[in-house]
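Fig. S4 source data, part A: sequence.
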Amino acid sequence: MNIYGGGDDLSFTINNSDTAGVQSFSASGANDQLVTSGSTLDLSHTTVSGFRVVSTNAQGTTFTVSDLGTAFQIAGGPGQDTMVAQGFTFTADQRDTIFKTSSIEQIVDGSGAYRKPGLPITIYTTLSDPSAYMGTYASSLSDNGSVVGYYMDSNDAYHSFIYCNAAYTTLDDPSVGIQPRQQWIIARAINASGETAGYYSDSMGVHGFIYSNGIYSTLDDPLAGTQIYQDTYASAINASGQVAGYFRAGLGNLNKAISGVSA
């Protein structure tokens, strides 16, 4: 089937089911368009001329094309749109033209994947501490790219870590308890200097800590007390080494606190 549009301002809504049965869309009028709301539109067996192909999908649409003429008809839309060239490769000038005349953010062909110049590049890095037995959990990211978090080992004990320059450093405050269910340390925050704040448990309860240059400093808010359910939790640290957190002066009694301690 071939579809021809002979008027101005024509607009047809299409999807993959429609294009599967159409060999070509062509138009000779002004401002004619084919509109899709789908996350994909397969035009690999369909040619388009005269129509601009528009997406209304807010997340973006992946357009698959098999000829250069159809590729130049893709306009894209408000989302992050991708064009996939099937069976041919764009030249650098052709890619540049598509990026300049459409809202396509990424082009993929036989020579690789290309992002529209000037767009931010998002890179995902999976963190999996080699000492972890059941999960690695990231808590905070510093301005220089260091990550702190925690993991569980095979003995159900929690340890914290710093991930920097693709290497893991385990944090185990020497004051952490050694009895079952008392052995855990949770790193919650890190600043650009590598100073880390968090909290750990021992037989008496929960204490905040700062880790800096290999030295652990315990934080116990004087208003919290030292009896059961009287705990201190450090949860943030700024560039000056000031720590924010909260303490518990008794069961169900939570209070915010700011410490001026700088490790």
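Fig. S4 source data, part B ends here. The CA atoms of residues 234 and 245 lie 4 Å apart.
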